[in-house]
Write a structure and sequence with these properties.
1 helix; disordered N terminus; alpha+beta; 98 residues; single chain; rod-shaped; 17% helix; two-stranded antiparallel sheet
């Protein structure tokens, strides 16, 4: 089944297109240049207020060592079976040293 979407054209009339999505900022629908700029600034402030900070984290990998009969942990991937140590998954995430 083919999806049908309505989109804005040059003269703001709707055309039918198939399998295509086109979006426009709300301020593009405003013809008055002063109001358009005001709305554009408000939209940009709103977007900036909703940004999230990306935090760098490091995975801590857990391995089980038959040789030492204990778990070992590493912050770098050592492979699924490294020197007899069996990978058991990610134990946690930690912040890197700064």
């Amino acid at each position: 089944m083919m999806d049908i979407y309505l989109i804005k054209t040059e003269n703001y009339e709707a055309d039918l297109l198939f399998d295509r999505i086109v979006t426009y900022p709300i301020y593009d629908l405003i013809s008055d240049p002063i109001k358009k700029q005001e709305i554009k600034e408000v939209v940009q402030r709103y977007i900036n207020s909703k940004k999230i900070d990306v935090i760098d984290i490091i995975s801590v990998f857990r391995y089980y060592s038959n040789k030492h009969v204990d778990h070992m942990f590493a912050t770098h991937w050592r492979g699924a079976n490294d020197n007899g140590d069996v990978y058991e998954g990610i134990e946690c995430y930690v912040y890197p040293n700064n």
